[in-house]
């Protein structure tokens, strides 16, 4: 078997993937038509070229705006896991960012219920498992973030359908010029409600933002954390405390344009520095990517060997919010399948 196929089949977890960024182009077209959203082209992939995070977000927001009902969210979630599982995904903690939909009058209860419906259907079909992280959209500000967390807490108390899938909150969208401390209230409330916390930091911003994500927002993980190595003391702390970074190397090239070529990405240096740097796709359908190719392209670009890739997959498990038993089971599965796949690899 060639290594590309083996990497595609290797069981993998993913902790940094926006569910809206997995929407199939055909689904974008169908939902846009159904919900009266104007697309300037019959082929949305023509729009998928970005010069920085904000130009990407304009397209991401357009794609998001096609989701109009519980059924639409269910379809998105179903297709997202089916497509991921086709490339070795076995467990995902997936972001969804409902600010724009809540602003337009959708109810968080319907969004969560729809997502949970779709995830359950896909789990039954594929065996992959998926949980959700409700992301606050920085562009909507701290008050909207707090309202979202309050509503989520209400739904948890009421046992609203599917809400048990939402295991944490996150923070995404535009970074530059937004003060992370505006979201301290929302994050504090989330912590009190027993939700995990993570935040996008250091995609386009310096290490000081990563520190704020940890110290002011109480983030247990940092999404991207691309600028970590610029601060040696922060790097020592992240490594020493095994704080996971959910790194998305291809995204950093294609979306943020923060790195000119994959070969120049600091990922290998991050791992050499002892960082728990996991591998993720971010927005695979908007960047022509999948998790198997994310692994393969990184293996080639960073001159990694098969055991390095297995170690990266296992680090993904460590970084999940699964309980110890869940982590043990997943680790065992990856080790078993990796050994079998490794045996069958083409040599030479
Ligand atoms: N939303 C979707 N993808 C994102 C990214 N890479 N950074 C911030 N917000 C996002
Ligand atoms: Zn992201």
Structure, described:
With 348 residues, the protein is an alpha/beta fold. The protein is globular, with a radius of gyration of 19 Å. 49% of the residues lie in helices and 12% in strands. Strands 1-2-3-4-5-6-7-8 form an 8-stranded parallel sheet. It has helices at 3-9, 25-35, 53-64, 70-85, 99-103, 108-126, 141-158, 184-192, 207-215, 232-240, 249-254, 267-272, 291-301, 306-318, 324-343; strands at 12-14, 89-96, 129-137, 166-172, 196-201, 221-224, 245-247, 277-279.
Distance between the termini: 12 Å
Mean pLDDT over all positions: 98
**Count of distinct strands:** 8
Beta percentage is 5-15%
List segments where confidence is low: pLDDT < 50 over at least 5 consecutive residues: none
Which small-molecule species are bound to the chains here?
adenine, zinc ion
Give the CA-based shape. globular
Would you tell me the structural class of the helices and strands?
alpha/beta
Number of helices: 15
Q: What about the largest sheet?
A: 8 strands, parallel
How much helicity do the residues have? 40-55%
- Please provide the ordered H/E string of secondary-structure elements: HEHHHEHHEHEHEHEHEHHEHHH
Radius of gyration: 19 Å
The spatial strand order of the largest sheet comes to: 1-2-3-4-5-6-7-8
């Amino acid at each position: 078997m060639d290594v590309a196929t083996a990497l595609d089949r290797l069981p993998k977890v993913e902790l940094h993937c926006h569910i809206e960024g997995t929407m199939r182009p055909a689904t974008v077209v169908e939902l846009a038509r159904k919900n009266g959203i104007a697309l300037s082209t019959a082929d949305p992939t023509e729009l998928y070229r970005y010069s920085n995070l904000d130009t990407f977000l304009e397209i991401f927001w357009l794609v998001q705006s096609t989701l109009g009902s519980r059924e639409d969210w269910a379809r998105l979630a179903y297709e997202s896991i089916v497509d991921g599982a086709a490339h070795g995904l076995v467990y995902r903690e997936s972001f969804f960012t409902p600010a724009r939909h809540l602003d337009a009058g959708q109810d968080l209860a319907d969004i969560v219920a729809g997502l949970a419906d779709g995830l359950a259907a896909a789990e039954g079909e594929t065996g992959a498992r998926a949980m959700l992280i409700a992301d606050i959209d920085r562009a909507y500000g701290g008050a909207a973030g707090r309202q979202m967390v309050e509503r989520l807490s209400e739904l948890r108390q009421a046992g609203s359908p599917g809400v048990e899938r939402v295991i944490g909150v996150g923070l995404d969208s535009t970074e530059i010029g937004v003060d992370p401390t505006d979201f301290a209230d929302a994050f504090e409330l989330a912590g009190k409600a027993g939700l995990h916390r993570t935040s996008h930091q250091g995609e386009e911003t310096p290490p000081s933002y990563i520190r704020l994500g940890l110290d002011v927002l109480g983030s247990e993980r940092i999404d991207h954390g691309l600028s970590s190595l610029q601060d040696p003391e922060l790097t020592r702390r992240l490594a020493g405390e095994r704080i996971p970074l959910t790194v998305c190397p291809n995204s950093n090239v294609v979306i943020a344009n923060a790195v000119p070529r994959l070969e120049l990405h600091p990922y290998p240096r991050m791992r050499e520095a002892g960082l728990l740097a996991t591998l993720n796709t971010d927005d695979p359908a908007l960047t022509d990517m999948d998790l198997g190719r994310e692994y393969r392209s990184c293996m080639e670009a960073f001159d990694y060997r098969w055991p390095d890739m297995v170690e990266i997959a296992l680090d993904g498990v460590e970084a999940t919010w699964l309980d110890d038993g869940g982590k043990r089971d997943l680790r065992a599965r990856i080790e078993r399948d990796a050994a079998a796949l490794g045996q069958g690899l083409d040599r030479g």
